[in-house]
């Protein structure tokens, strides 16, 4: 039998978008080997990856005041354990922003020095090649935000951390349950005033006291930090447990498939793989998204309503594009620039519109008129995408 281990770690940055530095720790192991690593360690019993990463940064580097900024995905590999037994390990990586560079390395764990290095120096200093890939993902998130610039939202960090902590208590009677963070809040391209904070819970009855408590927690914390936040519940088949319709089922399936990619487990356990194994109708899903875009007005109302309508229609655009990309490659990156690039050769209309939407978000998504103009093109772009999917493959 293969032994299984789970760890979590963090890429910790100073928060500068133009010239970020990254924290690495020099450690002397019991064998005398010296290595340079990022804060990382095993999950304790019942501990979720987000909490484990926060704890490891505090314990190994003496940094307790850090802010969640993005989820960087999961690394998985196999190895031979010390006694020769086969083993497998997962490491969930997060991007944290530090408010200070003052550190206190844990000498009792062999950490002898903490260094803040720029990206080239950090890449060269890191002992493990896998960290270089994680660092590159962090740099891509930072580069996207540097264009305006869009500083990482501390309100988002506080909201996510508080929901994770209160959810831990709420799920005490449900050992198989968990809560995940998904969407732009997890990917690192969250835009204050535009983006939603999306949570999903699994292995939790929709009518349970725990589900009610989670709803209350999300609503309370959402009000406290002035962010739109919502909680979805998945049933045993990976559909929306509250039976709100096909669009909710579609989003639920998509989100659960991305656990370990860009859906982060912040409380409890990850969902079983069987939850996500359901055949989908790609053309039907895109048609349903297009129908939503058609019936949702995008102009002619008061500014607040017009902005909300345009926001929802543009969300439909990005959802459809991501469905197309993951249909071809389930592990593809779903950050909008990379989705647009992936669709460039097969669906130029959708790719161009998506690039324009990404530029709008990157600029801060503050003006209503550009959003309404972009939203007006969504139904036609989705019709073209639907036809492309329905066309038979030419021999």
Describe the structure.
The protein has 395 residues and is an alpha+beta fold. The protein has 3 domains: 3-146, Alpha-Beta Complex (Nucleoside Triphosphate Pyrophosphohydrolase); 154-276, Beta Polymerase, domain 2 (2-Layer Sandwich); 282-390, Four Helix Bundle (Hemerythrin (Met), subunit A) (Up-down Bundle). It contains 13 helices and 11 strands. The chain has helices at 49-61, 119-125, 129-146, 154-170, 184-187, 209-225, 246-257, 282-295, 303-328, 336-343, 348-362, 368-376, 378-390, and strands spanning 3-13, 21-28, 34-37, 40-42, 66-80, 86-98, 111-118, 178-182, 197-202, 229-233, 264-268. The strands form 3 sheets. The protein has a 4-stranded mixed sheet with strand order 4-1-6-5. Strands 10-9-8-11 form a 4-stranded mixed sheet, sandwiched between helices. A 3-stranded antiparallel sheet has the order 3-2-7. The longest helix has 26 residues, at 303-328.
Summary keywords:
3 domains; 4-stranded mixed sheet; Beta Polymerase, domain 2; alpha+beta; 395 residues; Four Helix Bundle (Hemerythrin (Met), subunit A)
Short description:
With 395 residues, this protein is an alpha+beta fold. 44% of the residues lie in helices and 21% in strands. It contains 13 helices and 11 strands.
Name the strands of the widest sheet in spatial order: 4-1-6-5
Radius of gyration over C-alpha positions, nearest whole angstrom: 22 Å
Helix-strand sequence? EEEEHEEEHHHEHEHEHEHHHHHH
CATH class of the largest domain: Alpha Beta
Mean pLDDT: 91
CATH fold call of the largest domain: Nucleoside Triphosphate Pyrophosphohydrolase
Shape verdict: globular
- Beta fraction: 15-25%
Q: Tally the helices: what do you get?
A: 13
Number of domains: 3
Summarize the biggest pleated sheet. 4 strands, mixed
Q: Note the gap between the termini.
A: 45 Å
CATH homologous superfamily of the largest domain? Nucleoside Triphosphate Pyrophosphohydrolase
Model regions low in confidence, pLDDT < 50 over at least 5 residues: none
């Amino acid at each position: 039998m293969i032994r299984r281990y789970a760890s979590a770690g963090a890429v910790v940055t100073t928060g500068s978008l133009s010239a970020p530095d990254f924290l690495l720790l020099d450690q002397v192991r019991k064998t005398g080997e010296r290595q340079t690593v990022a804060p990382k360690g095993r999950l304790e019993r019942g501990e979720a990856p987000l909490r484990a990463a926060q704890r490891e940064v505090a314990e190994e580097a003496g940094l307790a005041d850090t802010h969640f900024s993005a989820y960087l995905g999961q690394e998985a590999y196999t190895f031979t354990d010390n006694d020769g037994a086969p083993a497998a390990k997962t490491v969930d990586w997060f991007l944290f922003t530090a408010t200070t560079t003052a550190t206190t390395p844990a000498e009792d764990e062999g950490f002898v020095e903490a260094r803040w290095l720029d990206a080239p120096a950090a890449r060269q200093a890191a002992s493990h090649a896998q960290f270089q890939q994680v660092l590159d993902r962090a740099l891509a998130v930072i580069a996207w935000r540097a264009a305006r610039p869009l500083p990482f939202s501390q309100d988002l960090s506080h909201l996510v951390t508080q929901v994770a902590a209160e959810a831990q208590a709420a799920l005490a009677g449900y050992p198989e349950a968990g809560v995940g963070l998904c969407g732009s809040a997890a990917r690192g391209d969250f835009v204050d005033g535009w983006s939603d904070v999306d949570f999903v819970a699994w292995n939790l009855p929709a009518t349970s006291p725990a589900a009610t408590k989670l709803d209350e927690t999300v609503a309370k914390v959402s009000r406290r930090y002035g962010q739109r936040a919502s909680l979805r519940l998945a049933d045993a088949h990976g559909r929306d447990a509250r039976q709100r319709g096909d669009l909710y089922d579609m989003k639920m399936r998509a989100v659960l498939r991305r656990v370990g990619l860009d859906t982060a487990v912040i409380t409890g356990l990850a969902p079983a793989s069987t939850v996500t194994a359901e055949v989908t109708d790609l053309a039907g899903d895109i048609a349903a998204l297009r129908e939503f875009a058609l019936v949702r007005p995008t102009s002619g109302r008061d500014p607040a309503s017009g902005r909300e309508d345009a926001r929802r229609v543009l969300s439909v655009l990005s959802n459809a594009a991501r469905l197309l990309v993951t249909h071809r490659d389930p592990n593809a990156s779903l950050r909008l620039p990379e989705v647009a690039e992936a669709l460039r050769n097969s669906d130029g209309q959708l790719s161009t519109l998506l690039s324009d939407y990404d530029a709008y978000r990157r600029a801060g998504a503050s003006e209503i008129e550009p959003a309404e103009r972009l939203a007006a093109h969504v139904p036609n772009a989705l019709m073209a995408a639907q036809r492309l999917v329905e066309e038979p493959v030419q021999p």
